[in-house]
Amino acid sequence: EVPLVESGGGLVQPGGSLRLSCAASGFTFSNYAMSWVRQAPGKGLEWVSGIHSFSGSTTYADSVRSRFTISRDNARNTLDLRLNSLKPEDTAVYYCSSRLLGLWGQGTQVTVSS
Hints:
- This protein has strands at residues 4-7, 10-12, 18-24, 34-39, 45-51, 58-60, 68-73, 78-83, 92-98, 103-104, 108-112.
- The chain is mostly beta strands.
- Strands 2, 4, 5, 6, 9, 10 and 11 form a seven-stranded mixed β-sheet that branches.
- Strand 4 (34-39) and strand 5 (45-51) form a beta hairpin.
C-alpha cells in the first residue's frame, strides 16, 4: 500500500486553476503536519506550503502566497492544494509529503501553458 498518492494535476492555461489531492494511508494522518513540495524541470525541490496536524494553521512560500490554498480533512485522510491564478513558472511535479515520517508521494504533474 502506497502511503501517499497524489492526483489532480494536468495542463492548464495561465490564469487557470487546479485542485490537487493527496490520499494518505497506513499511518495516523491526523497526527502529522503535511506539506506540498514541487520540482520544476531542471530545478531542485521547492517547498510550497504546509499545514499543521491539529490546528490546521497554514504556511506558504512567498511565490504562491495568496494564490494557493492548502487544506486537510483528517476524517478522510486527505490533503488538498488549490492552485489559482496559475503562472507558467508554477509548472512542476507536485508532491505531498510528511517530513517527520520521511514519506513522499509519487507526484502529480502540473503544466501551465497556453
